[in-house]
Each structure stands twice: as structure tokens, then as C-alpha cells.
Design goal:
CATH superfamily of one domain: Ribosomal protein S18
Strand content: under 5%
CATH topology of one domain: 30s Ribosomal Protein S18
Oligomer: single chain
Structural class: mainly alpha
CATH architecture of one domain: Irregular
Largest sheet: none
């Protein structure tokens, strides 16, 4: 009897397997109404990893439209050598 109570007492009834829900942060570009320009290297570097990869949308918090614009801007900047394709190891 005690064993059943101990096992049942461990759960709080929430479920979910230990995962928690975080509220999605709003898109930075939608709030500021700023434009994404491929010549603004400082802005683009905020959305690149140390290795030079583009940060995914779920991590950066961008909306789909602005993530696509950001990706295109990064690719343009890489093409004209404002940003390197990959960092040195």
C-alpha cells in the first residue's frame, strides 16, 4: 500500500515528460519595422554562429518572412565577400 502511494506521489499530474513550454519571442524585425540589408554586416553577424552558419528560425525568434529575407541577405553578403562562407577551425 505504501509503495503505491509513493509511486503515485512522484507525479504532479502535469505530464509532458519533463519538457516545458516557452512562449515564442516576437520577431525583432516586425517590432522595429527595420529592413534587412545585406550591406549591414553587423546585423547579419548577430544571426550567424561562430562557424558561419545561419541561426535557425526557432532559435533566433524571427518570423518566417523575415527569416527568408535574412537568409537571402546573408547569401548576398557572402557572394560579394562581405561575410565569409565558413570560419577557420
Amino acid at each position: 500500500m505504501e509503495r503505491e502511494q509513493q509511486q503515485g506521489g512522484d507525479r504532479d499530474g502535469g505530464g509532458g515528460g519533463g519538457r516545458f513550454f516557452q512562449r515564442r519571442r516576437p520577431c525583432r524585425f516586425c517590432i522595429d519595422k527595420g529592413s534587412i540589408d545585406f550591406k549591414d554586416v553587423g546585423l547579419l553577424r548577430n544571426f550567424l554562429t561562430e562557424r558561419g552558419r545561419i541561426v535557425p528560425r526557432r532559435i533566433s525568434g524571427n518570423c518566417m518572412r523575415h527569416q527568408r529575407e535574412l537568409t537571402a541577405a546573408v547569401k548576398r553578403a557572402r557572394h560579394i565577400a562581405l561575410i565569409s562562407f565558413a570560419e577557420e577551425r
